[in-house]
Amino acid sequence: MKVYSAIVRLVLRTNKTLANGLHPIMLRVSFGYTKEKATGYSCDIAHWDKKNQSIRKGYPHAEIINHIITDYKNKVVERKLNLEMKGIRYTPDMLLDDSRPDFSAQTHVFKTIMDDFLSDRQIRRSTKAHYDYAYGLLSQFMGNEHFLVNDLTQNRMIAFINQMKERLSEGTIHTVCAKIAAICHHAIATGMLQVADYCFQTKPYAKMVRKANRKAYIDKDNLIRIEEYYLRLVTEDTEGGWRFRQGAEQRIRKRSTVEFALCFWIAMLKLNGSAPIDVALLKTDNFSNKVIVDEQGWSHDYYCFDFQRSKTGTHVRPRIRCDRLAKAVFQPLIDSAQLRDGYIFPIVQNDNHSIKQNRTDEGIRCAVQHIACTTKRKMKMVCEEINKEVEQINKETGQCRPLINISQLSCYNMRHSFAMTYLSTPGANVNALATLLARSPNTIGTYITQLSNDQQLVHLVEEMGI
Questions:
Q1: Contact at 8 Å (CB) between 291 and 299?
Q2: Can you list the residues of the chain whose pLDDT is less than 50?
Q3: Cβ(404)–Cβ(383) under 8 Å?
Q4: What is the DSSP letter of 50?
Q5: Which residues, in sequence order, are bridge partners of residue 207?
Q6: Residues 6 or more apart from 68 whose CB is under 8 A from it?
Q7: What's the CA angle centered on 144, arms 105 and 189, to 5 degrees?
Q8: If 143 and its partner were Cys, which of 18, 79, 339, 385 is the partner (CB 3.0–4.6 Å)?
């Protein structure tokens, strides 16, 4: 039988499964051929009423969703009838083009609440970017851009966090969860969300929106062991001094190697505890070789870097003496930077000059997050080996040297480790540390861990001599 009018139906696309395990609800138009368009909502097979083209009762917010998708369908049907009355030939594409569900009346839509929240506050552009990034990840997980704030159940947030753990660092996950929590708090304050429906109540995951744990750092002795491990891995002694092991320079420039992971982490430490994004964006324009005379009148060669922190725009000016470690970390990368558009580290660009997606801010952010995660996994293996060495030393000498806390290992450790190592040196002061870290002296306490070890406290008191 020939059909002279388009058939418009709401269908559940069961052959497509979203990241949250649900199936998308589509608006299907059949007339000569079939065309579908997403409604922006989804549900499971058990709650979809195929006959009535709606979601059954018992599904969260079924009444609201049914109202939106039915209204969407009725608008397309109305467009079809108007064209038929005018005698205009149409296609499924014509009916679906420029049509979309009307979410403007839904004040409970997460994006609407977020826009309202941001418009009421004076925030920095970088902070707004964090909210947009969190919303982008969450909307991708939910399967549509117009999900309701009530859709963020505890089980869904647990699944969302577990998905992020596969490819994002702990610091990034904390930031994403903190932004989502802020929007939920605003929704609770304005009466759009009940306290009982708050999605971060489960104890194992509530900590994700609390203040980040910044007590984890690597002590000076273990930092030295990491540096020595790297030197043993990439260099060897000669009669006249030292040289790179065969193939070591090429492995340092390859992002998938343990050599690069160690190089990257040591570089973050040497560059005054800089963040991964700041190290990734370093170019030869930010670098120079200088001869600097120290306080004793001796001249030394230094690697001099001058750049701005991406987070605050504050200038950072690390000065690194050109010893064996510094040359083993930086020289292979500086010598080959011209292959990577001047980038010192092969993160934004590689030696083959084949990366194009990193020319955008989003591409660069994704590349840095990927490197942070992969290097973290490799550094865990390195630190496990170092811990075994320390345990053996403790066993043989009867000492109790600290181990590296592998469970809290992250790129942030390097910044905190730099601060704590500096404070352990004679003559250290907070104002100088603030200058090195490009922070305000008023907020430098973020990077200072309170001493809780009895041995440390006794040592400090005895050193005072009072």
A1: yes
A2: 1, 103-105, 211-212, 450-466
A3: yes
A4: T
A5: none
A6: 39, 41, 101, 102, 103, 106
A7: 50
A8: 18
Order the strands of the 7-12 sheet from edge to edge. Answer: 7-12, 23-31, 33-43
* pLDDT number for residue 445: 64
pLDDT (0 to 100) of residue 200: 80
pLDDT reported for residue 55? 92
**What are 28-84's pLDDT values in tens digits?**
998 888 888 888 888 899 999 999 999 998 887 787 788 888 888 888 888 888 888
Which residue in this structure is represented by tokens 């809290």?
A: 408
303 close to 289: Cβ distance less than 8 angstroms: yes
For residue 463, CA distances in Å to 100, 131, 246, 451, 456 come to 72, 47, 47, 15, 11
Residue 215, pLDDT score: 55
Q: Determine contact, residues 447/439, Cβ cutoff 8 Å.
A: yes
- CB-neighbour burial class of residue 203 (10 A; exposed 0-12, middle 13-18, buried 19+): exposed
Neighbours of 19 (CB within 10 A): 12
Q: Which helix (H) or strand (E) holds 78?
A: helix 62-85
- Our measurement of the distance from residue 424's CA atom to the centroid of its chain's CA atoms, rounded to an integer in Å, reads 31
> What one-character-per-residue DSSP string does 393-462 give?
HHHHH---PPPP-GGG--THHHHHHHHHHHHTSTT--HHHHHHHHT--GGGGGGG-PPP--HHHHHHHHH
* Phi, then psi, of 190 in degrees rounded to 5: -95, 5
Instruction: Please name the residues in contact with 215: beta carbons below 8 A apart, sequence gap of 6 or more.
Output: 449
- Cβ atoms of residues 150 and 108 within 8 Å: yes
Q: Which residues contact 280 (CB under 8 A, 6 or more apart)?
A: 343, 345, 347, 348, 364, 367, 368, 371
